[in-house]
Design a protein that fits this description.
Blueprint: H1 2-25, H2 32-55, H3 64-83, H4 95-101, H5 103-118, H6 136-158, H7 162-192, H8 197-220, H9 232-261, H10 266-285, H11 288-302, H12 309-320, H13 327-338, E1 344-349, E2 355-361, H14 374-383, E3 387-388, H15 389-394, H16 406-409, E4 414-422, E5 425-433, H17 443-506, H18 510-536, E6 544-547, H19 548-558, E7 566-570, E8 577-580, H20 582-599, E9 606-613, E10 616-623, H21 630-635, H22 653-663, E11 667-673, E12 677-685
Parallel strand pairs: 7-9
Antiparallel strand pairs: 1-2, 1-5, 3-4, 4-5, 6-8, 9-10, 10-12, 11-12
Helix pairs in contact: 1-2, 1-8, 2-3, 3-6, 5-6, 6-7, 7-8, 9-10, 9-11, 12-13, 13-17, 17-18, 19-20, 20-22
Organism: Neptunomonas marina
EC number: 2.7.13.3
Keywords: Kinase, Membrane, Phosphoprotein, Transferase, Transmembrane, Transmembrane helix
Amino acid sequence: MLNSIGLYSYLSALVFFFALSALLIFSARRNQTHISLKIAAVCSTLWSATVTLFYLRYLSAPILLPLTEIIRDFAWCFFLLKLAKLGQLNSEGGVIFKLTNSKKGIAAVAALIAFSILGPGHLLPTQLSILTLNHDLPLIAWISISIIGLTLVEQTYRNLDNQQRWALKHLCLGAGCIFAFDFFMYADALLFRKLDQQLWVARGVVNAIAVPLITVSITRMSGWDKSIQVSRKVVFHTAALTGAGIYLVLMSAAGYFIRYYGGSWGGVLQIVFLCGAGALLFTLLFSDRIRANIRVILSKHFFSYKYDYREEWQRFTHSLSDTSHEAPERICLALSALVNSDGASIWSKSEDDTFKCIASINTPITKSTGTEFNSLIGFLARTGWVVDIKEYNETPGLYDNLYLPESITQNPRAWLIVPLLFDTTPSGFVIINYSDLKASINWEDRDLLKIAGKQAASLLEQHQANLALLQARQFEAFNRLSAYIVHDLKNILAQQSLIVANAEKHKHKPEFVDDVILTVRNSVDRMTRLMEQMRNGMRGSSPETISLQQFLENICAKYNRLRPLPLLSANVNESCIIVADSDQLANVFGHLIQNAQEATPDSGSISVTLETDENRANIIITDTGSGMSEEFIASRLFKPFDSTKGLTGMGIGVFESREVVRTLGGEISVISQPGAGSSFTVTLPLAEQPS
C-alpha cells in the first residue's frame, strides 16, 4: 500500500518540478542567479524521476538514489549562494564569505558529500529495515547538508531588504521546507535507528508543495520574462472548477452530519439540503456578475499588466497640457487615445444643474432635455464605473438601476461612458466612440480610464472655475467703471444743484446767465463722454500732451467759485509737459481741491504748488483744514466705498485718483495732522522732450 502511495507522492514531485523547469528554461533571462535556479529545478526533476523509476522497478543501481539527491542538494545550495549576492552577504567577515572563500569549509563540504555517497548502502524506498551502527556516518552527513541548506536560507532571507523580501520570501519558504523536512527525516532515522517509511513516502508531496511557493517568487522577481503563460480562460475555468469542488465537498460533509444527527428526518433533510446546495451552486456559476468579478480578481492577481503605466501617464498628461485646444477638447482627445478611439464628446454640468455637451471630436454635438441623464449621473456617483454601452444593451443586469437614454443606446458610434469624478461628485462624463483597433476592454482598461477620468475632472473643474473667474472679472470691471461714472455724475449733479440754488437770486444778471449756459454746456459734454465710456466699457479717452502749469491754472480757475480760493504757485519753465488723459487728470486735481475746500473754513487757505525734480513733476496741494489722523490715512483714506461725508459721499474719489495717477507711472502721498491741515503730493513722470 505504501509503495503505491510513495509512487504517486514522488510522481507528483516529478510533475511539479518538471513544470517548474519548463517555465524556467523558456525564460528569457540568462544571468548567473537565474541559471543556477534553472539547474536546481532540473536537478530536482532528475532526483524525483529517479525515485519514481525505482518504485516502478525500472532502475536497480542503488548508487543513483544518493547520487541524484546529492546533486539536487548541491544545486539548491549553489543557487542560494548566488541569491545571497542580492543581500550583499558576500562581504568580508560574513557567513557566506567564510563559506565560499575558506578552503577548509569547501573541503569539509566535499568530505560530507563523499561520506554520504560512499557510506555503506543507502536504503532504497523498498528496503526499509533496522540500521546498524555503520550507517550513522552517512546519516550525519545528510543532516549536516540539511543544516547547511537551512543556514543559507536563513542568512539569505535575514539580509534582504524589504523589497527583496517581498519578492523572495516564498522561495525561501519553499527551499526551507525541502531542507527542514530532510533534516527531520534523517534526524529521526539517526535517533530511532530506522528510516521512517511514512516520512519517506510523504517526502515527495512535501517537495511538490514547495514548487508553487517557488513559482510565486519567480513571478515577483524583476527581470523575468516568462515566455510560457497559462491563458486567462484556463485559469478562470480551473479556479471555477476548484471552487465548485471545494463547495461540493463541504456541502457533502454538511449533508453527512445532517443525515447522522437528523434522526428519522435525517435522510429527507440531507436530500433537500444537497438539492438546495446544488441549485445555489449552479446559480452562482451562471451569474454574469460573479463570473465577471472572478475574471477581474484572477487577472489582477495572477497575470502581468499589459500597459506601461509610466509611458501611458506621460502621454496622457502631455495631451491634457497641450494648449493648442481648449480644455474640453483636450480631455476628449486624451481619453479617446487611451483606447485607440478617433473621437469622443464631453458633457458637463451647466448652471441649472443639467448636463450639456460642451465639446466633441469627430462626433456631432447632440442636444438633450437636461433631465434624461439623471439615472446615469446617479449611477456614476454610486459606482464610479466605466459603462460599456454594448455590454449594457446585451446584459443590462450588470448595471443595477441604470437607464440610458436612446440618444446614447441608439447611437451606433457610442462605445464607452467614462465618469469625470471630482472627489465623489460627477462633474461630467465623456462618451468615447468605437475604436477600429480595439473591439473590447478588460478590467485593466477600465481602471486606467477611471483614474484618467478623475485627473481629467480636475482639469474640467479648473476650466469651469477659470470661466467663472473671467466672467466675475468682467462684472468687476463693469461695476468699477459704473462706480466711477456715478461718482462723476454726482459731481455734475452738485454743479447743477448749485445753479438751481443761486438762480432765484441772480437770474436777472446777464453774467450769471452766461455762467449757467457755460456750466450746462460743460455738463452736457461731460455726460456725453460718460455715456461713451459706458458704451465702450473703457474709462477715459486717448492720452494727450498737457502743459502742467496751464492745466493747473484752468483747474484752479474752475474751483474759484468756492472759498477758500486755491492759489497756484509755479516756478517752472514751459517744458513741464506730461502725457495723460486730460479729463481723468482734471478729475484727480479737481477732487483733491474740492476735498480741501470742504475740509477748510472760509478763513483758511489752499495752495497748489508745482515743482519739478529731474524727470518728475510734483504737485503739492496743501490746506489748513481739519486734517486726518495717521490711522485714518493708513486704513480708510484710500479704501473704496468708505466715506466720511455720509449719504452725500461715495468714498471712491481718492481711490480713483490714486489709481489714475498710478496708471501714469506716478504716486500720491499724504502728510496730515488733525487740526493742522493736510498736504497731498502728486508725483507724475514728465514727458521726454525731443532733442
